Amino acid sequence: MVLGRWAPLSHPRIEDVALDDLLRALADPTRRAIVRLLIAEGDRPCGTFGLPVAASTLSHHFRALREAGLIRQWDEGRQRMNTLRLDELATRFPGLVENVLDAPD
Amino acid sequence: MVLGRWAPLSHPRIEDVALDDLLRALADPTRRAIVRLLIAEGDRPCGTFGLPVAASTLSHHFRALREAGLIRQWDEGRQRMNTLRLDELATRFPGLVENVLDAPD
DNA sequence: CGGTCTATTCGATATGTCTCGTAAACACCT
DNA sequence: AGGTGTTTACGAGACATATCGAATAGACCG
């Protein structure tokens, strides 16, 4: 059986990011918390977000964010780093992400 | 059995509108099409949107938009009118709806 | 009253999502 | 090699959503 971190970490090109996926990704409070933390405190590995969900659940959300085009991930040693794709997203959806994150929950 | 247009058409107060619900409502292309048409051509009854879905499906989407705080509905004769709650929404989520609707799909 | 128009609710089906626990993979360290 | 730390994939459960057709309600019109 194939488990573990095998998948080659595919990221969508920014011009292929669908508005549907972006909005669905941002429509979850846990995922918004991840994105807000990335904005507030910069790039971080998955394990440093301190959110009240199981590790496997968190992993699911990171995948959703990555596949929606919101974050870029890469491996560094045993950690997986995350960065926001804000600049890229701004070319296709100017101001949208900031606008959502500034909104009250 | 109780069917037909009985429900008393409840609308959330704008301060009770949750970002989650708003984003989920806008994350559907049929619902975005409804909202875009309301912006482009003004208040309209449900039957005048010309979208390729069954009437019952459309009804489901109108309900979702109403309960998410995006539209206000009222009955006029046998038709049900729809208007965007743009001004109200702007007080709580400034620019958000416009930003989403201006985005490419 | 009977017929028509508009829109809804209901029931069913198919699909997607959030959550978790468990098991596995890979990197690092001793 | 063996142990530990980080993260993921898988499987399962509970719940939500999108879609449709059929039945129904109320408004209007003749």
TrEMBL record, chains A, B:
<feature type="domain" description="HTH arsR-type">
    <location>
        <begin position="11"/>
        <end position="104"/>
    </location>
</feature>
<protein>
    <submittedName>
        <fullName>DNA-binding transcriptional regulator, ArsR family</fullName>
    </submittedName>
</protein>
<dbReference type="InterPro" id="IPR011991">
    <property type="entry name" value="ArsR-like_HTH"/>
</dbReference>
<dbReference type="InterPro" id="IPR036390">
    <property type="entry name" value="WH_DNA-bd_sf"/>
</dbReference>
<dbReference type="InterPro" id="IPR001845">
    <property type="entry name" value="HTH_ArsR_DNA-bd_dom"/>
</dbReference>
<keyword id="KW-0804">Transcription</keyword>
<dbReference type="InterPro" id="IPR036388">
    <property type="entry name" value="WH-like_DNA-bd_sf"/>
</dbReference>
<dbReference type="Pfam" id="PF12840">
    <property type="entry name" value="HTH_20"/>
</dbReference>
<keyword id="KW-0238">DNA-binding</keyword>
<dbReference type="GO" id="GO:0003700">
    <property type="term" value="F:DNA-binding transcription factor activity"/>
</dbReference>
<dbReference type="InterPro" id="IPR051081">
    <property type="entry name" value="HTH_MetalResp_TranReg"/>
</dbReference>
<keyword id="KW-0805">Transcription regulation</keyword>
<dbReference type="GO" id="GO:0003677">
    <property type="term" value="F:DNA binding"/>
</dbReference>
